[in-house]
Automatic annotation (TrEMBL):
Gene3D superfamilies noted in UniProt: NAD(P)-binding Rossmann-like Domain
Protein name in UniProt: SDR family oxidoreductase
PANTHER family per the UniProt record, alphabetical: FLAVIN REDUCTASE-RELATED (PTHR15020), UPF0659 PROTEIN YMR090W (PTHR15020:SF50)
A Pfam entry, by short name: NAD_binding_10
InterPro entries linked to this entry: NAD(P)-bd_dom, NAD(P)-bd_dom_sf
Record domain NAD(P)-binding: where: 11-187
SUPFAM superfamilies per UniProt: NAD(P)-binding Rossmann-fold domains (SSF51735)
Length: 200
């Protein structure tokens, strides 16, 4: 039995959860804030958990049984949510198998060209929060992969162009479904441990 924990019920979080529930002998938990809702079909297939993602106690039940974790959190204050998550994990001595984090291109000043961040008013502060969240993942000392997609689109999936950390990344777009496929594969099959990958 493999336990997966998805944090965040946005489109990517829901799509990854939908892929994982089709895995044999998989238990999928989806933890999200009270302001998010799941479609009835997905809610019937996962263990839905809700709470304040800025409170450590919210994470304790979700982190039981050594889950493989995917954070689909986007927008501001991801670093705050991660502070509480890792505080709960550390103080409760809850081991994790691996952690896959959805971040964004631009956190390493690696993008050539102009990248857009829809819905973000203060890009500098947003990128600083993403950097701090990634630092917390790195310091937690279990296998992780950080995914840094360029601007997301609703277009059909295409083969992912994966660019290693430290390499220049061209500004542009990538299908949300492509990112979902990459995240799902990492959660099921592992690989790219301790790496930060741009997705174009």
């Amino acid at each position: 039995m493999t336990t997966y924990l998805i944090i965040g019920a946005n489109a990517i979080g829901q799509a990854v959860a939908g892929n994982l529930v089709r895995q044999p002998a998989a238990t999928v938990r989806l933890l999200h804030g009270a302001d998010e809702t799941l479609p009835a079909e997905l809610a019937a297939q996962v263990t839905e958990m809700t709470g304040d993602l800025h409170q450590a106690d919210t994470y304790i039940p979700a982190l039981q049984d050594t889950p493989i974790v995917f954070s689909a959190l986007t927008g501001p204050d991801v670093d705050w949510a991660f502070e509480e998550l890792f505080d709960a994990q550390y103080h409760q001595r809850l081991p994790l198998t691996r952690f896959v984090m959805l971040s964004t291109a631009g956190v390493d000043d690696e993008v050539s060209g102009q990248l857009t961040y829809p819905g973000i008013s203060d890009v500098k502060e947003y990128l600083n929060q993403q950097r701090y969240a990634a630092k917390q993942v790195d310091e937690a000392e279990f296998p992780y992969t950080i995914l840094r997609p360029v601007t997301l689109t609703e277009t059909p999936a295409t083969p992912a162009n994966i660019i290693a950390e430290g390499q220049p990344v061209p500004a542009g777009t990538v299908s949300r479904e492509t990112v979902v496929q990459v995240a799902t594969d990492l959660l099921i099959n592992g690989g790219h441990d301790y790496q930060s990958l741009a997705i174009c």
